Amino acid sequence: MQSVFDQGPPLACPAPFNMAAYVLSHAVALADKPALEVVGDTRQTLTYAALRQRVTRVAGGLRASGLTEGDRVLFRLGNTADFPVAYLACIWAGLIPIPASSQLTAPEASEVARQTTPALILHQDGVSLPEHAAQVMGELPEAEPIEPVMGDPNRLAYIIFTSGTSGKPSGVRHAHRAIWARRMMWDGWYDLSAQDRVMHAGAFNWTYTLGTGLMDPWSVGATALIPAEGVISDALAALIAKHDATIFAAAPGVYRQILKSKLPMMPSLRHGLSAGESLPHVLREAWQAATGTDIHEALGMSECSTFVSGRPSVPALAHTSGRPQAGRRIAVFENGKPVPVDTAGLLAIHRSDPGLMLGYLDEDLPAEEWFVTADTVRMSALGDVTYLGRADDMMNAGGFRVSPLEVEGVFSDLSGLTACAAVAVEIKANTQVIALFYTSDTPLRDDDMRTHAHALLARYKQPRLYIHRDTLPKGGNGKLNRRLLRDTFEVPND
């Protein structure tokens, strides 16, 4: 039996279509309802009526400034509500937003600008500016509201950047229909309704926040809650309780930080959501024990957002990411063809998926039936997907392929250890071993860590080196950067 799982035909996007108009389709009927609450020491509220008015006025201002349909707009905006307003306004006006992370350095931002040739750069103080000839605006322009630019749902809507398998930023082009595809997450991951109050722990300018924390709640008429800038992870549980959040979304590391403190009662919370990196099962269990609620993980990528997940009605099995959502068709490939079930291979998405990208910046989606990713997974006959890591992160130990996630998972509950990363490093020419880089308040005893590994891992999976670090490197998207650990490794002198 081959690893191909078909969850039925995908949702057909209506036409003509505009992504921003779709997201704000409930705004008139829900005029006085809070669309956005920025919560912290104080609460700032934006109603649906105010959100729609601001978006349409900024859209009018952008077009009045001389921009024409199809022009690209690079974001150098900070962690404020201006970010999603500008994002929707560009799409409403038929412009192409490029919501780049505010954490990019000036050289990194310059490279994004070089690749995308924006006509305008929206800039806020404190955020790096690229070296580029495009006009720079320091404030969002406003003018008389305009009607949304409708058209083919398959036309370009926005561009995001991903590190990809090369470690270099790659621009990903998405169509307006990408937001329509996210409807498959409403039941397949979120269990989302208009009555929900969804709190996302991320910044406004993170694509995970844009989608799960803002666009999806607004698309269904729910209220989005975003912590104010400067709110620390330790304070999030209190905010969930105080503001009656029903769904909480964050990356695994945020859950880990929250669990370090005694948690208040959170009677409104129904469940948590996790994405961005693999969720350790021990962390999910600890959250369940502390809160009485589950965390539902989703697996996805910049090229297709999230399409495999657990959900409240069908939670993911332990150590898996869940199953393909209804309307998705996925497979596991090796050497150009599907592998048998329960066999490791590369995750593939059928090209009919409406959430699949149009292509990279200068490269359209290949004509093949399947888009094969760089994520290594294993899939059961029932569709349960186990994520094994990026293909370029997989380790080779004595001829065996080893997932870094399997090694890291064994150490995730070790007393005193706060985070870890398993990486294959070269100790001499053509000789690699598994090293475990870790953080803790004080270095742990190597012998204790070896004993722990010996009890839980096959010999060939056990780390040969244990390396204490003050911090583990992360990319601009907050994900662990194993590549940097591998590339900067130096053989110990002892």
Explain what you see.
The protein has about 500 residues and is α/β, with parallel strands linked by helices. The chain folds into 2 domains: about 5-385, Rossmann fold, CATH 3.40.50; about 395-485, GMP Synthetase, Chain A, domain 3. Helix content is about 25%, strand content about 30%. It is built from 13 helices and 28 strands. It has a 9-stranded mixed beta sheet, sandwiched between helices. Strands 1, 17, 18, 19, 22 and 23 form a 6-stranded antiparallel beta sheet that branches. Strand 26 and strand 27 (about 430-440) form a beta hairpin. Helix 2 (about 50-65) packs across helix 3. It is globular. The mean pLDDT is about 90.
Q: Name the helicity range.
A: 10-25%
- Which fold name is given in CATH as the topology of the largest domain? Rossmann fold
Work out the number of β strands.
28
Q: How much β-strand is present in the residues?
A: 25-35%
Tell me the Rg in angstroms. Answer: 23 Å
Strand order of the largest sheet: 3-2-11-10-12-13-14-15-16
Structural class: alpha/beta
CATH architecture field of the largest domain: 3-Layer(aba) Sandwich
- What is the CATH superfamily classification of the largest domain? ANL, N-terminal domain
Query: Any idea how many domains?
Result: 2
Please give the count of helices.
Answer: 13
Mean pLDDT figure: 92
Report the biggest beta sheet as strand number plus sense, adding barrel if it closes: 9 strands, mixed
Uncertain spans: none
Overall shape: it is globular
Note the gap between the termini: 50 Å
CATH class of the largest domain: Alpha Beta
